Amino acid sequence: MVPDRRSELLSFCRSLPFVTEDIKWGNDLIFSVGGKMFAGFAKDGTEPTFGCKVPEEDFAALTSVNGIVPAAYAARFHWINIEKPDVLPDGAAIALLRGSYELVKGALPKKMQRALGTNGSGGEPTAKKKKPAKKAKAAAPTGSKKKKAAKKSSAKTKSKAASSRKVAAKTKRASSTARGRAKNAPAKQRGKSGKK
Question: What is the CA radius of gyration of the chain?
Fold first, then answer.
């Protein structure tokens, strides 16, 4: 009966929408949604032991049960390991796996959720929302209006170029004046003492 329960849990994980499975770290069968893990089993195991994510508020209560322990390296993310599956009542293992799947999928970025075609809860595709109609652009100027707009634009550009040239010239004069003052300054001010 035990191997049947394991295959039931694996089948359940495989049946969830948008789930991928792969082998990580050489011996762990991992199920993910959107590239994020939600359940892990021993690759070659025969026991229905597994690890999954649980809500933060349930973590302490679940890990206080004999046979359910904080997952190594992942307890800070509220992952648990079910080491003794007998401690779970019928249907509880599947409920934990479904809850883990929903937690992880719900935490995916909205962009990823849209790419998966989900609304963040359940595996239902999202209904396509109608985009609001774009505002009509102002009519493009015609004839003489175009010419006036072009003249204004050209005048602004010329004005900006002239003002930047003036600033550059002032800066150049200021720096050359400062260099001249430094050359003509007494040796004491330049940091040199008159003594040899």
Answer: 35
Cβ(50)–Cβ(82) below 8 Å: yes
Q: Give the span between the Cα atoms of 27 and 32, in whole angstroms.
A: 16
Query: Whose CA is closest to 92, among 121, 58, 122?
Result: 58
Could you tell me the two tokens for 185?
A: 């300054």
**Residue pLDDT, tens place only, 38-57:** 999 998 888 889 999 999 99
Count of other CB atoms within 10 angstroms of residue 40: 24
Place of tokens 């900006």: 160
pLDDT tens for 60-86 read: 999 999 999 999 999 999 999 999 989
Cα–Cα distance measured from residue 100 to residue 31, given in angstroms and rounded to the nearest whole number:
11
Per-residue tokens: 77: 């993310």
Verdict on whether the full-model pTM lies above 0.85: no
